[in-house]
Request: fold
Amino acid sequence: MRRSWVSGSLGEKRMVDTLADSLNTIYVSETKGRSSALLKKPSKILRSILEIFKQEGYLESYETIEDSIGGKISVKLSGRINNCKCVKPRFSVKAPDWDVWEGRYLPARGLGVIIVSTSQGLMTHKSAKEKKIGGRLIAYVY
Reply:
């Protein structure tokens, strides 16, 4: 997860969570009915999350655009996202507790996906449940 410091309007420094900003950009673009979104601060974890969204059918495609600043990601939306957020704080979940967290972040059983960081990499909560492993909650989408 990449965070950066930004100067505020009064000169104070504040921390920005680039993953949360990117997911919010996707959510806002989806609710406004746009067919695409441009994410300005790409990272390795963001690309992994977008790949999971694509595999689950929440995105049609995404493309990395290289430039001198650090690149951008152009995302083609499929119109299936009702909500898409980052989980803060990053709760630690044990293998038997998936149903509790599924009930907290998803509207119904079997609807939506929680992205979790495990010792085996990023995956959906469904995959973690099947493998009987725990991890840290990163984001959710439905």
